[in-house]
Write a structure and sequence with these properties.
Strand content of chain B: 5-15%
GO cellular component, one term (chain B): ATP-binding cassette (ABC) transporter complex
CATH topology of the largest domain in chain A: MetI-like fold
Radius of gyration of chain A: 29 Å
Number of strands of chain A: 0
Number of strands of chain B: 8
Number of helices of chain B: 12
Order of helices and strands of chain A: HHHHHHHHHHHHHH
Number of helices of chain A: 14
Structural class of chain B: mainly alpha
Structural class of chain A: mainly alpha
Strand order of the largest sheet of chain B: 1-6-7
CATH class of the domain at 86-156 and 268-397 in chain B: Mainly Alpha
Family (chain B): Belongs to the binding-protein-dependent transport system permease family. HisMQ subfamily.
Helix content of chain B: 55-70%
Distance between the termini of chain A: 46 Å
Shape of chain B: globular
Helix content of chain A: 55-70%
Organism (chain B): Pseudohoeflea suaedae
CATH architecture of the domain at 86-156 and 268-397 in chain B: Orthogonal Bundle
CATH superfamily of the largest domain in chain A: MetI-like
Subcellular location (chain B): Cell inner membrane; Cell membrane
CATH architecture of the largest domain in chain A: Orthogonal Bundle
Oligomer: heterodimer
Protein name (chain B): Amino acid ABC transporter permease
Chain lengths: ~375, ~400
């Protein structure tokens, strides 16, 4: 507007910008962090002090028990007896082979090691997104590896046979978990599709199957597979005990998997189904190429949670007398050579650590994949 | 042919006459195959089972329910001796399962809500502590946790003689490897009046709540329903207690010889199971609560503040009711999981339904089919009833959307 002078007519208004001052010392650095995160309000301060006191009360004794007072070497219970003795790691050291392989013959354990190596060789490249040949890799993991693993572990038909009753420890835990995962995933997809099918009988049967398995505890399923299943088979057919447990675990987790995948299918807009039809794709083509890739991507966290649940649930097989990791740890509590007050706690903490590594690793990996595959469906 | 919407009839094309391309015909055909396969499996299963049972000389049927059980059960809520019937044993197991599940649900909910809120706390220490709790407990199998509490914590407690108690001296409570000993209340004449008073108090609370709600709708004035109700619930039974002349005798426990006598004992199996179930499930509930609260849009908080609500009112009247809509469905499945997980009791010897009925009774009678079927049906029934109740509750809290 003309007529207005550049000079400020009001004397009390500053003509130049005041230079920025540094933030108050209480809002930056260590002091600022402490202020906002620990001592923001009087109530926060009180809570912080209480929690810090509780931590001081719990953590040092725990560290003492785990490390400083722990017995690291020894060959019998004498080493772990005494007034102020912490964890008895010597027990874990002495039993480590059993915890890993069970009663698998010591001179044949290389076969288990080799199987484990082959598994890792297939898993690592498929888990890293940038490594190529995903299709070949998947075929190796889902077709080639199971056959080789079966031949190596059981010894059938070329090597010296090892009965499954001699398997144990982490080996059994991993066998049950991996077979459960590999079987329950496709079965879960089929059940989920069945539950959303237009065919009334397919739908009804899927619903009954899913609701039945989800409604009963896994223990009763395992009891059923170990006690009742032999009754329903012809008298001359006998099943391996481990195989029966595997069937129970796989059917059980496939019901949970189905519900997770159904959630994904329901989240896909109807237009996608209609578009697949409009492109003249058959039902299976549409599912394979359009619907399932989107639906599965949506429910990756749920799928991994089911896997984690399945991995933890494998520990239940000890109740029907299969010595998985937890089963073999627990069995060794009764070893008279190692009975001491610290033995059960040590063995269980060790087993807990192994389970934790697997489960926590899976959950971190799923978080990573979720972030990577998040290609913008969020509103 | 009428056009059916859906995915199964992707190749619908009336131009092609061939029957094998007709989705209806295909549907009927595949379903018929499915029925035949399932029917064959069921038939062969039943006929095999009948043959196997006949060979083993086991008479099927439920007659065994009336027979004498002949075994002891460590913890019973109803009267039971080894002369009781198998049905009585079944009942004892069922009640034990229901009791530990109900208490587990209560504690898991309380701990879970506290930890879930703690994960959202401004306080760094509390937030991290809650995160460590959740990540540790939910990544370790429940069975391992139960065994830990039972074998590594409770079983290595000193025995009654080593706890430093003096012979014959009564104590308020003591914890040793036989369990937790607490005083026992022995009701005398007039004790039932207190129960009646408590029921009346709850009824009064409900009436006051309804009246306060109506009044607020009419006049806008609020009434401290919760505090009043709590005062009535505590005050009325307490008043009755004194008016009826304190009709309770308290029995304390004391060390007698090698063992404790008197008082009530809570067995280590029960403590371990309750601890394990509550702490484990709480870690899942905490995550559900956290997700539920985070799911409420930030604008809701800001809108509430803009309307002049206090932070307390904001969370109580705006945030929590909306978060509950997200929380309740997964919470239901956690409750169901807890109930089903209580069957792990069999691993530590707590006499629940699976341990008593699916374990001892099955071994004694050999009626595998009947026993396991009944056990599964019981859990199925509990699951379906809980689902139904929670669905009803959910439909009440769910807001009607546009």
């Amino acid at each position: 507007m003309p007529g207005i002078e550049n000079a400020n007519p009001f004397a009390y208004v500053s003509t130049e910008t005041i230079p920025q001052s540094p933030p108050p010392t209480a809002a930056k650095g260590v002091a600022g962090w402490l202020k906002t995160n620990l001592f923001a309000t009087p109530r926060d301060t009180v809570l912080t002090i209480i929690v810090a006191l509780i931590l001081l009360w719990i953590v040092p004794p725990m560290l003492n028990w785990l490390f400083f007072d722990a017995v690291w070497t020894g060959d019998g219970r004498e080493a772990c007896l005494g007034e102020h003795v912490g964890a008895c790691w010597a027990f874990v050291e002495a039993k480590f082979g059993q915890f890993m392989y069970g009663r698998y013959p010591a001179e044949l354990r290389w076969r288990v090691d080799l199987t484990g190596f082959l598994l890792i060789a297939g898993l690592v490249p498929i888990a890293i997104p940038s490594v190529p040949y995903k299709r070949e890799n998947a075929i190796y993991l889902l077709v080639v590896f199971p056959i080789i693993a079966f031949m190596l572990l059981t010894g059938w038909p070329f090597l010296e046979p090892v009965e499954t009753s001699r398997w144990g420890g982490l080996l059994v835990t991993l066998v049950v978990a991996i077979v459960g995962i590999v079987v329950s995933f496709p079965l879960g997809i089929l059940l989920a599709l069945g539950r959303r099918s237009n065919l009334p009988i397919v739908k009804t049967m899927s619903v009954i199957f899913i609701e039945f398995w989800r409604g009963v505890p896994l223990i009763t399923v395992l009891f059923m597979s170990s006690v009742m299943l032999p009754l329903f088979l012809p008298a001359d057919v006998s099943f391996d005990k481990l195989l029966r447990a595997l069937i129970g675990v796989a059917l059980f987790s496939s019901a949970y998997m189905a519900e997770v995948i159904r959630g994904g299918l329901q989240a896909i807009p109807k237009g996608q189904y209609e578009a697949a039809n409009a492109m003249a794709l058959t039902y299976w083509q549409g599912m394979r190429l359009i619907i399932l890739p989107q639906a599965l991507k949506l429910v990756i966290p749920g799928i991994v949670n089911t896997f984690i649940g399945l991995f933890k649930d494998t520990s239940l097989v000890l109740i029907i007398g299969i010595f998985d990791l937890l089963g073999i740890v627990q069995q060794n509590f009764t070893d008279t050579n190692w009975i001491s007050p610290a033995t059960p706690a040590t063995g269980l903490v060790f087993a807990a650590f192994i389970y934790f590594i697997f489960c926590f690793g899976m959950s971190r990996y799923s978080a990573f994949m979720e972030e990577r595959l998040d290609t913008g469906h969020k509103r | 042919m009428a056009h059916t919407d859906g995915v199964a009839d992707g190749t619908e094309d009336s131009g092609r006459a061939s029957l094998i391309y007709d989705p209806k015909v295909r549907g009927v055909f595949f379903q018929a195959i499915l029925i035949i396969v399932v029917a064959y499996l069921v038939y062969s299963g039943i006929s095999n089972a009948a043959g196997n049972l006949a060979r083993a000389g086991i008479a099927s049927g439920f007659d065994f329910f009336g027979e004498r059980a002949g075994f002891e059960i460590g913890q019973t809520l109803v009267h039971y001796t080894n002369d009781s019937t198998y049905f009585r044993a079944f009942l004892v197991g069922l009640l034990n399962t229901l009791m530990v599940s109900a208490l587990g649900i209560l504690f898991a909910t309380i701990i879970g809500f506290i930890v879930g809120l703690a994960r959202l706390s401004r306080n760094y220490l509390i937030r991290k502590l809650a995160t460590v709790y959740v990540e540790t407990l939910r990544n370790i199998p429940l069975l391992l946790q139960l065994l830990f509490w039972y074998k590594a914590v409770l079983a290595v407690l000193p025995n009654p003689r080593e706890t430093g108690l003096e012979q014959g001296t009564t104590v308020l409570w003591t914890l040793n490897n036989r369990g937790l000993y607490i005083p026992r209340l022995i009701p005398e004449a007039g004790a039932s009046a207190i129960l009646v008073a408590a029921i009346i108090a709850i009824a009064l609370w409900v009436v006051i709540g309804m009246w306060a709600g109506k009044r607020q709708m009419r006049t806008g004035q609020q009434f401290p329903t919760f505090l009043t109700g709590l005062a009535i619930l505590v005050g009325l039974p307490l008043l009755t207690f004194f008016l009826t002349g304190m009709p309770f005798d308290v029995e304390f426990s004391a060390l007698q010889g090698f063992n404790m006598s008197g008082g009530t004992v809570i067995r280590p199996e029960f403590i371990a199971l309750l601890l394990g179930l509550s702490l484990y499930t709480a870690s899942f509930i905490a995550e559900i609560v956290r997700a539920g609260i985070l799911a409420v849009a930030k604008g809701q908080t800001e809108a509430a503040y803009a309307l002049g609500l206090s932070p307390n009112h904001t969370s109580r009247l705006v945030i929590i009711p909306q978060a509950m809509r997200v929380i309740i469905p997964p919470l239901t499945s956690q409750y169901l999981n807890l109930t089903k997980n209580s069957s792990l009791a069999v691993a530590i010897g707590y006499p629940d339904l699976v341990a008593v009925f699916g374990g001892t009774v099955l071994n004694q009678t050999g009626q595998a089919v009947e026993v396991i079927t009944i056990t599964m049906l019981v859990y199925l029934t509990i699951s379906l009833l809980t689902s139904a109740f929670m669905n009803w509750f959910n439909s009440r809290v769910a807001l009607v959307e546009r």
